[in-house]
Amino acid sequence: MDPTAQLYLDLMKKVLANTIYEDAPVPASWAPAHEYDELNRRLGVDWPSVAHTMIGIRRLENVEHCVKTALADGVPGDFIETGVWRGGTCIFMRAVLKAHGVTDRRVWVADSFEGMPAADASTHAGDRELASDRYNDFMATDLPTVRRNFERYDLLDDQVQFLPGWFRDTLPTAPVDRLAVLRLDSDLYESTMDTLVHLYPKLSPGGFVIVDDYHIPVCAEAVHDWRAKFGVTDPIQDIDGLGVFWRREA
């Protein structure tokens, strides 16, 4: 790869995670710090107040590896993330395509753009217990804001497509033909299951599944329930102690 193009991608990772200006995190129960911590940001365990992604440098590097490998090996299909927050990871996917001069693939940006769904009596018990919607004041990022974030990097074009709405409503009929990388940042059992059920069949052999929230018990439960039901045995690989990925063999 052209060293200048790689320099661009390395800078994009730093800017998207904001390791340059080191914005203070929003304190959370699992990361109560009020000040920027380099290790926390690298591992993606804090909630940045300004940065456009919260997945950290290590998981951005994993996205880069999966996208580049899919391109190098000619794995057909587009790239998607389900659950995008401020859009940073999808912005990075689009940047990788830009750096490689790829013009015939798209990045799909799937999110409610309203935060997490409220649980009710029909919701999976683990999702009810997690009650992620209580964080919606911070987690919910509307579609115009995400579009503006793409524009800030000069990466909003017809190779970026948005799928707004709850996954149970949008993914069954999503106009996605083939996927080379499927990245889930869905948190919950039901949203993880919806994503795998409706999108995995579109993943090309040799394509990658990335599960950002595997460390959340209900997310891991959904992954293993789905794999058992559909007989998926491709080895799961750890990324950073939080997220995992695997490559589809067939």
UniProtKB/TrEMBL annotation:
Keyword Membrane: no
Gene3D superfamilies, per database record: Vaccinia Virus protein VP39
InterPro entries membership: SAM-dependent_MTases_sf (IPR029063), TylF_MeTrfase (IPR008884)
The entry's keywords: Antibiotic biosynthesis, Magnesium, Metal-binding, Methyltransferase, S-adenosyl-L-methionine, Transferase
Keyword Metal-binding: yes
One Gene Ontology molecular-function label: metal ion binding
GO BP, sorted A to Z: antibiotic biosynthetic process; methylation
Family in the record: Belongs to the methyltransferase TylF/MycF family.
Protein name, entry field: Rhamnose C4'-methyltransferase
Protein species of origin: Streptomyces viridochromogenes (strain DSM 40736 / JCM 4977 / BCRC 1201 / Tue 494)
